[in-house]
Amino acid sequence: MHPRTRATLTSAGLALTLALTGCAADTRNGDSVSAEQDPSATPADEPSPSATPTPPTAAPADSSPTGRPTRSRTPLPTLGPPTGPPREPSDLRKKHLVAGRINRGGDGPCYGLITDDGQQYALHGAGLGTFGVGVVVRVTLGPADPAVDCGPGIPASIVKMSTVG
Prior knowledge:
By secondary structure, this protein is of the alpha+beta class.
């Protein structure tokens, strides 16, 4: 369809819609009067009941010329600037899972571990393999065995230990 034809049809449809909804203005004497408010309108001016009314066309939707809906004019909500650093860690971590470097290693059953934040652990776990000093590991911790002393640090048993990277 040619763009000029489309514009003509759209304008004609809008005019028909305005006329059928009673919004067409009568500008006699410079006043704007709708067909329903016009006191000079007579029953002869109205369509006969036997005439089939033409259904009104839909009013143009709030859309762009391409037919896509336009963006809302209401601004999106935004968060304000932070008032300071978070008081609690923003990353959720499981308390029984730690990662760090082995500082007392070997073939077990005792290992020493230092996390990135400087926390030292004294870990106990038999049959886990050999982990040399400096190896980065991830450890799932269990409750400490009170009968075992693996040196300085927070005592804990090893549920699972694996190298990282």
